[in-house]
Every structure is written in structure tokens, then in C-alpha cells.
Amino acid sequence: MKFNQQRRRLLTLAAGGTTLVAAAKLSGFSLITHALAASVNADVPKRGGTLVISWGGLEPQALYVPGGGGSAPFQTSTKILERLLKLDSDLTFLPELAESVTPSMDFKRYTLKLRQGVKWHDGHDFTAEDVVFNALEHWKAISAGIALKSLTAAQAVDSHTVTLDFAVPVPEFFLKSTLAGQYQLVLPKHLYAGQEILTNPLNNRPVGTGPWKYGNWIRGSYVEYARNEQYWGQGQPWLDKLIVRWWGDAASRTAALETGELHVGYSNPVPAREIERLVKTGKVVLDTRGYENSAWTVSVEFNQRRDNVKRREVRQALLHAIDRQFIINTIYFGRGKAAVSPIFSSNAFFFTDDVPLYAFDPEKAKQLLDQAGLPEKDGKRFSVNLLAAAWFEENAKLGQYLKQALNDVGIDVRLDSVDRATALKRIYSDYDYDIAISNFTAPIEPVPTVTQFYTSDGIVKGAAFRNATGYRSAEMDQLVAQITVETDEEKRKGLIHQFARLASTDVPIVPLVEMQSFTLAASNVRNVTTDANVQGASLNDIWLAVER
């Protein structure tokens, strides 16, 4: 890990004009071999060029959605807006707009030292006042949920120092994860103060501090970004222009990768069956990095406002009707793993398999439904509306499978497979479904991104990818509240294991498959990602090599 960090610094210094030998000394290399020198020279970033990227989903509802909105707006906003910290692929917190975040002895105060010399895209200085505004009016009020519930004060000590005060102890890993998290982007106070944040027109043409400036959004097609000439990262970004483009279906993305029209496709841009063929062309490479802090799942959500599925014993019974391995093999072509809880097996910090499991057993499902007082009459026990959010074609296919699987245990199913806009409205605003097929990402730190699917404070009508099921449990709320204040690492780990067990017992929302995420990129693209969450990468250091 140390060698890679030194080498990365060496490359950056060399690209900025420092001689190779001098760069080696500054980077901590005591000796540089001819072979390494040749490798470094070959990898020195080149300035210029236009990069076209996409992902396995569709166009966002806005370029930036405060408090969430899903992966689509997260990708488009993080090229412009930055966070205080970021998590790299080595799972190390790195400075972005904050150079340091230091706790007091009692973990009730954190001191933030901010990066100096940073400009907003409109020329205003980035200062401590921006962070104070975001902490109180944006993050605590809108985006962070329970993570900043105990925040009592945010103060600017000087132009580039902020203190955050909390009513209770806040674990360091938890706070740093929150500040590096998906929703804690920093907005300009001089443009948002006194304005409505959620519906501000600037959310469709953001002004940030990041490497890319908003250029133009052609709805239904692409958004174009211009290089930020005043970016604080030395010499970055390397490219002249960045374009995020959306194709309406996986077949079109596949063709665009083959022809070179698309340079990078993140987050499963094509069906898994196409990977081997594309890589064999020699024009495309496969990369599975960049998902260490953004594991994906496909989930089923049970609406607690609807008869039958609001009962825990019924939900548990229905899970026995679902063959997860069949789903993995036939829908995801083997690129996945059966999920056992909302804390995924890829989470080296907090995963436990000591949770209730629901093996595929249709006969047991029938028996449990009988015991629940729902016997089969004329081949039917009850009816449900199954809503598949078909922003991924796999979700639509899963809808067809679940319809048949539930039919097999006597459940009459009306399947609605709908587009992104309709799915967001019906699941998160209208609550118009009995069972929904959706997706979410699970970072290493479960609070609040994962826990807000289960806590009562996650019930926010119209807020996407939160608690749409209406599930409420005093035990769950109390447990998550304990997790947010426990500073002993082992005790906190134990509490998160309890969360996993309770979530896997009550099963209001159930991850079915841990999807194996991947990126496909043109062979001349360098630094496809160095982040632990590729969707939120700013792409400040990505560049195009000249193919030989």
C-alpha cells in the first residue's frame, strides 16, 4: 500500500514538471531502477482530450439532488461539487476540501482544517462560512439524517477552521464516513443561503469547487462539463472536456463501447454475458475496482401499509419461495452472491453471517402461509401488486421470475414493470405497491445510508432510496441511535451485528443478491478510478494515453 501511495505521488510530481529523479526523492523512493523509470515515463498523464462516460442506469431527475436521489444524480453532481473527505480504494480517508478532521478527547467536538486557496466556479473564495452553512442548513437539516442529529453547533474559528460540537460522543470513523459520504456535498453559501435548497434551480446547473464546471445539459442525451482552470489540484484535471451520456438500453451502450463512442462505462454498463466478448476485442478492459465502498444489491421491499405483506410472518414465508442462486445464475450470469443481510459480505469491517436465513424451500413457504391463516382457496391465497423498477433490465427480468415464484406458492401477482420516473414516484412518493423491486448501494459505514431504510426517521415522503416501506420499530430506532454514539470500536461492531440480525428478522426490505459490479473502459483510459466509490469519483486524475 505504501509503495502504491509513493508511486502515485511520484507520477503526480513528474506530470507537474518535476524531473523524475527529483520526484522520486520527494516521493520517498531511495532508489529508482531503469525499469521503474521507463514504467513511470510511460504512465505520465497527458493533457487534453474529451472523455465520454456512462453507467448501467439512466438519466437523473436533476444533476444534483440534495439528500439523495440515487446513483444517477450522485454521478453527475460529484464532478462539480466536492466533499470534505474522500475514501480511496485502499479504504483510507484522504483530504478533499478538509485537510484534517480531528476529534477532542471526549469525541464531542471535531476541528476541521480546510484547504486554502480554493475558489468556487464563479470566482468566490471557499471559506469556513461555507462549511458552517452546509453543516447546519444542508447536511443536518436535509442529507445526513440521524448521522448529524446530535450536532448542536458549527462555528467558524477563522477563515479556514471550523468546529463541530455534538451533544453526545460521535465515533471518529462514523463522522469521517459521513463527511466522505454520498450526500454530504459542499454547496456555496453565497448562492444557497436564504434559498430553498431542495428545489433550487441551481441543482440543475451546480456551482462547485470540483475539477469540472457545468457546461450544458441536453436532456435525454448528455451533460457536458468544461475543465476548471482554477482547480486546486496541481495540473488537474488532465482532460479538456468531460461528457456524461445516457443510452436508453444496454445494447446501445454495448455498441458504443465497441465503436469507441463510449470510453468508460461504470456500474455494470452492459449485461454480464457481453463482458467476455468485449474484452476479447482488445479495445475494452474490465475493471472491478472502485466498488469497495459502494456495494450494490437488488432488493425486495414490502409495503407495511398493505394487508398481508405488513405481517412479518408472511414476509418471512414469501422469502422461502425465492431461489436466489437461480437469480444469480440466470439473470446475473453468475456475477453475484446471495445476500444474507443489509451488511454485505464485502464489508470487512462490519459483516456477520450470524443472522436469520431464508433458504429456498417452496413447501416451507406454503406451510408458513397456512400457519399465518392464509390457506390456498381455488389456487390462490391473496393478491399483490409487484412493482419492478426497470431502470436496470435485470430488475424487469427479476420481476418476471418473482411473479412465477410467488404464483407457485399461491400468490396472485399483478406485475408492473415501469421506467425510472414512474418507479421513483410510485415507490417513494405515492407508496403505490405491495412489493417493490429496487436497488441500493451499501457503503462500509451503514449509518445513515443503509440504516435509514429501517429507521422511522428515514420515512420522508418523496425522498428516494430511504424508508419507503413505512416500517417502524422502537427497538430498531434505539439500536441505530446507540450505534451513532458508541465510540468503542468492538462494541460498535457488536451493535451493527445486532442491527443486521434485527433487519434480517423483521425483513421489511430485503437484499436478495450482492451484485458483482464492474467497469468497462477503452484500453487507452488511465486512472479509471482511484476512489472506493467509483460513482462519486470526481475524475480529476483520469486521462487518455496515446495508443502505440
Question: Overall 3D geometry?
Answer: globular
Span between N and C termini?
30 Å
Report strand %: 15-25%
User: What is the overall number of helices?
Assistant: 16
Coarse structural class: alpha+beta
Record the strand order, biggest sheet: 8-9-10-1-11-19-12
Rg computed from alpha carbons, rounded to a whole number of angstroms:
24 Å
Which stretches of 5+ consecutive residues score pLDDT under 50? Answer: 1-42
For the report, how would you describe the main beta sheet?
A: 7 strands, mixed
Q: Name the average pLDDT.
A: 90
Provide the helix percentage.
Answer: 25-40%
Count of β-strands: 21
Q: How is the topology of this model organized?
A:
Blueprint: H1 2-15, H2 20-27, H3 34-43, E1 50-55, H4 71-77, E2 85-87, E3 93-95, E4 98-103, E5 109-114, H5 128-143, E6 151-158, E7 161-166, H6 172-179, H7 189-192, E8 212-218, E9 222-227, E10 241-245, H8 250-259, E11 264-266, H9 275-280, E12 284-287, E13 295-302, H10 312-319, H11 324-330, E14 336-338, H12 362-371, E15 382-389, H13 393-407, E16 411-418, H14 420-428, E17 435-442, H15 474-485, H16 489-506, E18 509-515, E19 519-522, E20 525-526, E21 543-544
Parallel strand pairs: 1-10, 1-11, 15-16, 15-17
Antiparallel strand pairs: 2-3, 4-5, 5-7, 6-7, 8-9, 9-10, 11-19, 12-19, 13-17, 13-18, 14-18, 20-21
Helix pairs in contact: 1-2, 10-12, 15-16
